[in-house]
Amino acid sequence: MNALTPTTRALTWSLHLLVAGLLALTAVRAVAESRPHAPAVVAVAAVVGAVYAVGPVLPAVRGSRRAAAVWLAVVGAVWLVLLALSADGVWLAFPLYFVQLHLLPRRAGLAAVSATAVAAIAAFSAHQGTFTAATAIGPALGAAVAVAVVWGYQALYRESEQRRRLIEELTATRADLADAQRAAGVLEERERLAREIHDTLAQGLTSIQLLLRAAERALPDRPEAATRYVGQARQAAMDDLAEARRFVAALSPPALDGTTLADALDRLCATTGDRHRPAVRFRLAGRPRPLTTAQEVALLRIAQSALANTVRHAHARTAEVTLDFLHDAVALDVTDDGVGFDPAAVPAPGPEGGGFGLAAMRARMHAVGGTLTVESAPGRGTALTARLPAPDDHEAQT
Predict the structure, then answer these.
(1) Dihedral of the CA atoms 169, 173, 178, 184 (nearest 10)?
(2) Nearest alpha-carbon partner for 113 in 74, 139, 78, 86
(3) Phi and psi, residue 140, nearest 5°
(4) Edge-to-edge strands, sheet with 382-389
(5) Which H helix or E strand runs over 86?
(6) pTM of model > 0.85
(7) pLDDT, tens digit, for every residue of 62-113?
(8) Is 336 helix (H, G, I), strand (E, B) or coil?
């Protein structure tokens, strides 16, 4: 027997056993006390038990309120016959209260309980031959207790269901948030790898291509120069391989291993000047202060990307990289005397049009809380400035 509001299996079976026990008690007392209608009481008690037992096994009663109401009406009608034959039938009113309150809607259940209580009081008074307050208190108090218990249970159940739904919603929200965080992490890692590939492998391959092209032009008239260009291309390939292995492992660039940012920039300028046309100079200004690893990596990558753009596009004769430690900031300036360009006309990033360089540099500076500015015009060279706030001592140690 499924109630509108479910109960535990133990309580349900306790209710069934209570009905069976009270029916057995009514029949036994009628026989033991040799009451006038003892055979009829036993027969009607058996009928009440049979009709009651049908309810829990019928799917219609378990699944339909209308069928449950019909079944309860039949049980009530047979119970009234038993109540007319024996005053002991009044005790069945108490379990019937619970069944009615569980199976019927609130108003219909309350009406059924009230009618059952009135019938119990009237029948018991008729058997006693008198009506007293005590006669009414028992059935009425039982009805009140049943209503309080069932309605209290229903309130607790509704609250429990609300909490269950809230927990399910929170669990679903937490799962959605975890998925969003994973997606954001994947996107962030893709952006990181894109920047690393652009600033290392792509620029390195461009440098190798230019060196090999120079070696090709030197052959066969200048084999010594061609050999030097090939050697520089091999060294660039080895450096790029080390960079690839390192950024895949999310470690700092090899150029920063065991050295300072200023020394790494100085070597970068010297290597670029040796391998390519522009004469590149490094200048250090201000009193050096320790930076975080993320800041050093960002500034070094920006310098690499900026110099690669100078070599590839600017056709410059000279370039200068300046690392300036200001009072409250650190600035990296990369300038050249090349052909310049219109920053507003830079193509959007794409496989064919390029345009990844400035976008990647801005993304790097944004990631470490800095800014990037580019000043250039056709025929007037280019000046790029990466500026970030200087970290305090605690940040620099992390």
Answers:
(1) 160
(2) 139
(3) -65, -40
(4) 279-286, 318-325, 329-336, 382-389, 371-376
(5) none
(6) no
(7) 778 888 888 888 988 998 998 888 888 888 888 888 888 888 888 888 888 8
(8) strand
